[in-house]
């Protein structure tokens, strides 16, 4: 499936992507110059992340799993974003997603989000089981661990696809998974325990591979077409130099990309000290 050429309303995003490309190259150069301790695997990941953020559309899902959540609190939360703009929020157990903004309203009229929720809810259930299995090997404290994660699948105009998983235990990023190559990158000792548990389960690794490479790619194609039409309908006729910009107009893919790159630079410094 090939997307239509970018419309005028996307020019700002393209310009922002070029700026982000410069920021990414600076960040990678800094990492190489400093002799980044995590080694070539993580440096390769950084290069991939920069290229993905700059050159492609992307659909991502952020999630948090707390298997011992208190009464009245969800044990799992999922947030769907396209180019960093949230359009979907879901609490496990509610069986109903909240959809936001013009994009969310239009997605609501399709069956796409229902399929997403079915797949993601099943994945959350399986990850919850795994987290309970490995908690003894990760934590010595009484408090049970929480699992945070992010899955991102890009849409590349040249037809390439792939996806990554970032997994954190109680706020500490510890494990990365390349869904295209099937490679794991362990960043902390907790990540090693989690990797052994996930990688030993063929069904789980199948889910982590299939969702970014298959399901998410299909979802992105459908959601992106809706998003592009929404941009065309909601874009202002013109925005002169003296025209104030609304928060909705100011929130662009480029702003999210630059924020991600800055966050990555902080992560590099932290990881360099830990590893």
TrEMBL record:
Q: Name one GO cellular component term.
A: membrane
Domain named MHC class I-like antigen recognition-like: residues: 56-231
**KW Protein biosynthesis (keyword) present:** no
**Any Pfam family hit:** MHC_I
Keywords, ordered alphabetically: Disulfide bond, Glycoprotein, Membrane, Signal
- This chain's protein is named MHC class I-like antigen recognition-like domain-containing protein
Q: Which organism is it from?
A: Sus scrofa (Pig)
Q: Which InterPro entries match?
A: MHC_class-I_related, MHC_I-like_Ag-recog, MHC_I-like_Ag-recog_sf, MHC_I/II-like_Ag-recog
List locations, semicolon-separated.
Membrane
Q: What is the lineage of its organism?
A: Eukaryota, Metazoa, Chordata, Craniata, Vertebrata
Q: Does the keyword Signal apply?
A: yes
